[in-house]
Prior knowledge:
Layout: H1 6-12, H2 16-47, H3 52-67, H4 70-79, H5 88-91, H6 94-120, H7 123-131, H8 136-166, H9 178-189, H10 192-221, E1 258-269, E2 272-283, E3 287-291, H11 298-305, E4 313-318, E5 321-322, H12 327-334, E6 337-340, H13 352-362, H14 368-381, H15 397-409, E7 415-419, H16 427-442, E8 447-450, H17 454-459, E9 463-468, E10 471-477, H18 478-483, H19 488-497
Parallel strand pairs: 3-8, 3-9, 6-7, 7-8
Antiparallel strand pairs: 1-2, 1-4, 4-5, 9-10
Helix pairs in contact: 1-10, 2-3, 2-6, 2-8, 2-10, 3-6, 4-6, 6-8, 7-8, 8-10, 9-10, 13-14, 13-15, 14-15, 15-16
This protein binds adenosine-5'-diphosphate and magnesium ion.
Residues 298-299, 420 line the site of magnesium ion.
Amino acid sequence: MGSFDWHYxxxxxxxxxxxxxxxxxxxxxxxxxxLSTALGLLVALAQQSRLHPLRLLASAYVWFFRxxxxxxxxxxxxxxPQLFPELRPLLSSPFTAGLVALVLSETAYIAEIHxxxxxxxxxxxxxxxxxxxxxxxxVQRHVVVPQAFRVxxxxxxxxFISILKLTSLVSSIxxxxxxxxxQRLYTQNFLVLxxxxxxxxxxxxxxxxxxxxxxxxxxxxxxxxxxxxxxAEPAPENEAVPAAPTRTRPRTPHEGEVVxxxxxxxxxxxxxxxxxxxxLDVHRGEVVAVIGPSGSGKTTLVRTxxxxxxxxQGRVEIxxxxxxxxxxxxxxxxxxxxxxFQRFNLFPHRTVxxxxxxxxxxxxxxxxxxxxxxxxxxxxxxxxxxxxxxxPHQLSGGQQQRVAIARALAMDPSVLLFDEPTSALDxxxxxxxxxxxxxxxxxxxxxxxxxxxxxxxxxxxxxxVFMNQGRILAQGPSxxxxxxxxxxxxxxxxxxxxxx
Length: 500
Ligand code: ADP
Ligand code: MG
C-alpha cells in the first residue's frame, strides 16, 4: 500500500479557499432550494387547477425537466447566450447560470413533492375554509398549503441535501465550488485522494449541519407534539356539563321573513338522482330539523344551500340574495351561511383561537384585537374559553364540535347549517353539543339541522322536514310530524329508529 498524507488532508480542513468554496456551495444550494420550493408549489397548484391548459403546461414542465440530466442542462444554460446574446449579462456568471439550471430542474422534482403534500390534505379542510367564506387563494394560503408543507417537509429536506451535492456539477462551468477548488489543488500537487477526502469531509459536514436544522424545523412545525402546559387543563368535572336539551322558548312560526329560500333543487351524481326537486323555506329565528333515512339526500341538501355542492337545477337565496357566481362572489355569499360539519373539520395546525379568528381576519372584517375579543366571547358562549390556546387534537370530540360552532358564529351568519353534528361523537359527548345548539336556538339563531337525534328534533326544532329519496316527503311543525304523521314511509322510519 502506498503512503497517504494524512497531515495534508487534515491541513485542508482549515484551508481558506475551501471554506470560501463551502460557503459558496451553501449559498447556491439555499438559493436553489428556496426558489425551487416556491416555484415548485406554484407548479403543483397549477397541476391541480381547473383550467385545462394550465394543468397541461405544468405537467409538461415536470415531464420535460425531470427527463433532462442536470449536467446537460447546466452546460446548455451557461452557453445559451450564444443563442440569446441578451442573456449574457445574466448567465455569464457561473453562479447565476448554475442557479438557473438547478432551479429549472429542481422545480420539477419539488413540484411532485408538493403535489404529494397537497393530496395528503383532505378535501374537507378546503371545504371548511370555503364554508367560512374564504376565497380560493386564502384557502390555499392559510389552510391547505401550511398543512401540505408540513407533510412535504421531510422530502423537501432530503431534496435540499441532494441539491447541496448536485452543486458539485457546477464545477463543470468553472464555478469555484468545493470540487473545483479541490481539483485545482491536486492538479498541482498530485495528492488526488488526500484532496478528495478533504472535499468529501466538507460535504459530510455541510450535510450533517443542515440535516440537524431540518430535524429542528420539523419538530417546531409539528403542533401535534405540543403538550398542554401543566395546570392549564381544567379537570373535566369542573367544566359545566350542559343539561339535555329542552324547549325553552315559544315555537317560531313557519312564516314571516325568509332567510333561506330554496326552489326546485335538483342534483345528480352520475346516474343517481340525489335531489329531486326540493323546495325549502327557513324563516328568521326558526330551527328546521331535516330527518330521513341514510342516502336520502340530507347532506347534499345542506351542502347545496351554501353551494359547496352546485345544484344542477334550481336556486338558493339567502336573505333575498341569489347564491352563485365566481370564486369571490360565492365566498362573499357564504359569509352569511355558517356550516358545522359532522367531523368538525377544525384546522389542525391552528389553535382554537386562530381557528375562530382566521376567517374574520382573512376577510378584514375586523382588526386582530376585535377578532380575538369576539372569539373569546364566543368561546365563553360554548363553554370553552379556558381552551383558547390549545390545538384541536388536544380537545375531545364534543369540545372540537363546540369550537366548530364558535368558528361558524364568528362570521355572524344569517343562518347556521349543521350536518349531523353529533354523529361522530361518543354517546356521552352528544349532550354538550346539543345543549349548545339549544342555547343558540333560544337566542333566536336561524338553524338548519340534519340530525338523527329525534329528541332534539322534537324538543328544539320548530319545523321538521322528512326527506326520502331526494324529495321532501313530509314537513310541518315538529309535533305534527312526530305525533300523527299519517305518512306510511314516515311511520316506518320512526318505527325503525325507535321512539324519540
Ligand atoms: P344522506 O346525508 O341523507 O345520507 P347524501 O346526501 O349524503 O345522503 O347522499 C345521497 C346519495 O348521494 C347517496 O346515495 C350517496 O351515495 C350519493 N352521493 C353523495 N355525494 C356523492 C358524491 N360526491 N358523488 C357520488 N355520489 C354521492
Ligand atoms: Mg349525510
